[in-house]
Design a protein that fits this description.
Order of helices and strands: EHEEEEEHEE
Shape: elongated
Structural class: mainly beta
Strand order of the largest sheet: 1-2-8
Largest sheet: 3 strands, antiparallel
Number of strands: 8
Number of helices: 2
Strand content: 25-35%
Distance between the termini: 20 Å
C-alpha cells in the first residue's frame, strides 16, 4: 500500500484504488492546471496538459523557443493547431493552479 507518489525518473501514482498490476491506470504527480492563459493565440483559454511541441511531450508549461512560460491550449500536437498562451498572467494568482495527475494511462 502506498500513501504518496512512487519515485523514479518522475514521481507517479496509481489513479484507481485496488491492485495496480490488475488495472494499470496511473499518472504523473504534481502536475498543474492553469485556469486561463494570456497573450498568444488562445484568447485566454486554459492550458491543456500534456501537449507535444516539436516531438517533445510537456507535462507543464515550458519556455521552449519563448521568453516566458507557455502552454498549448488544445489537446495533442501543438503543430496541428498552434493555439497557445502564456501561463503566468499578471491577474492570475498562483493559488489558482490546482495539483492533479497528468500523462499516464
Amino acid at each position: 500500500t502506498y500513501y504518496d507518489c512512487c519515485t523514479g525518473s518522475r514521481p507517479w501514482c496509481a489513479t484507481r484504488s485496488g491492485v495496480y498490476e490488475e488495472h494499470g491506470q496511473w499518472g504523473y504527480c504534481n502536475c498543474k492546471s492553469y485556469s486561463s492563459t494570456c497573450g498568444g493565440t488562445a484568447a485566454g483559454n486554459a492550458c491543456v496538459l500534456p501537449f507535444v511541441y516539436r516531438d517533445i511531450k510537456y507535462y507543464d508549461c515550458t519556455t521552449a523557443n519563448h521568453n516566458q512560460l507557455w502552454c498549448a491550449t488544445e489537446k495533442g500536437n501543438y503543430e496541428d493547431h498552434e493555439k497557445w498562451g502564456n501561463c503566468h498572467c499578471p491577474t492570475e494568482a498562483d493559488s489558482e493552479s490546482v495539483p492533479r495527475t497528468c500523462g499516464g494511462s
